[in-house]
Amino acid sequence: MPIIRVEMWTGRTTQQKAELAKAITDAVCRVAGSKPEATFVVFTDIPKENWAQSGKLASQT
């Protein structure tokens, strides 16, 4: 039972997440041999002020 966690900035639409979930599920099933009904994709939306890279908050770039 694969569980794939996707963390990304807030702002994607429900449609974008649905398309991404389908693409990820298809790839995991093809490569890992899992079944779609046993493959879970969990999205976590993270505000830019809670994400930093190279010592700078994403909200400051």
Can you put this structure into words, describing what you see?
The structure is a single chain. The chain is an alpha+beta fold and 61 residues long. The protein has 1 helix and 4 strands. The strands form 2 sheets. The protein has a two-stranded parallel ribbon. It starts with a strand and ends with a strand.
Structural class, by secondary structure, is: alpha+beta
Q: How far apart lie the N and C ends?
A: 38 Å
Strand neighbour order, sheet with most strands: 1-2
Task: Supply Rg.
Answer: 14 Å
Which SSEs are present, and which pair or pack?
Blueprint: E1 3-9, H1 14-32, E2 40-46, E3 52-53, E4 56-57
Give short descriptive properties of this protein:
61 residues; alpha+beta; two-stranded parallel ribbon; two-stranded antiparallel sheet; 4 strands; 31% helix; elongated
Summarize the structure.
The chain has 61 residues and is an alpha+beta fold. It is built from one helix and four strands.
